[in-house]
Amino acid sequence: MVKVGVLGAKGKMGTQVCQTVEKTEGLELVAALDQGDDLERLVEAGAQVVVDFTRPEVVMDNLAYCIEHRIHAVVGTTGFDAERLDTLRTQLAASPSTGVLVAANFSIGAVLMMQFAATAAKYYESVEIIELHHPNKVDAPSGTARRTAELIAAARQEAEAGPIPDATTTALDGARGAVVEGIHVHGLRLRGLIAHQEVLFGDVGETLTIRHDSMDRESFMAGVVVGIRRVVDTPGLTVGLEHFLDLG
Length: 248
Description:
Blueprint: E1 2-7, H1 12-23, E2 27-33, H2 40-44, E3 49-52, H3 56-68, E4 72-75, H4 82-93, E5 99-102, H5 108-121, E6 126-133, H6 143-158, E7 178-180, E8 183-189, E9 195-203, E10 206-214, H7 221-231, E11 236-239
Parallel strand pairs: 1-2, 1-3, 3-4, 4-5, 5-11, 6-8
Antiparallel strand pairs: 6-9, 7-8, 9-10
Helix pairs in contact: 3-4, 5-6
Family: Belongs to the DapB family.
Binding site for NAD(+): 8-13, 34, 76-78, 103-106
Main location: cytoplasm
């Protein structure tokens, strides 16, 4: 039985995580904390793994506490750049038995979408990303879009692909989206959406579109459960749920 604490327990994702932990065999919800709650309750409850779906401005303090107290962490909060990841690696060096998983997306389909995009990247001259989310999302581009762009850029670099063609010389600010690792990323925010992403590839005479849609937050829960079960046996920092899946 893995004892689980949830941070951000009153949010939409946190609420779903709590419900999932309570009904999943082998997991026990021992602490459900939200803004203003004392993190000491995690230790008092004997939490072995914490699932964090909070906000970028508080997540690093949460993780510092967990690492200090040797509590494993599964993190779905966004806002992780190279500097933050390096900070976690430094903190984990002082707690070598503790594991932290930082994942841009916990949907199995979204993880596969990112992997398929990285595979396709070396074969196409052009590629752009469109991410579509609900209007309450605080970051843009999404963490999934950033991670996808990074994977695509790495695959193109390995394949020694040339620059992506774009003859634009005049454009309104933002018309071509953000640029992540040389990949253009466009963010849409619309009421009624949950989480959606398209990766569009193009070459002479053809295009390829890889799209993933999450219509319900339940779609993320299978990945969260995988993360909880695997992180206890995976010390150090793991970036990306794909490392916990058998993708061949």
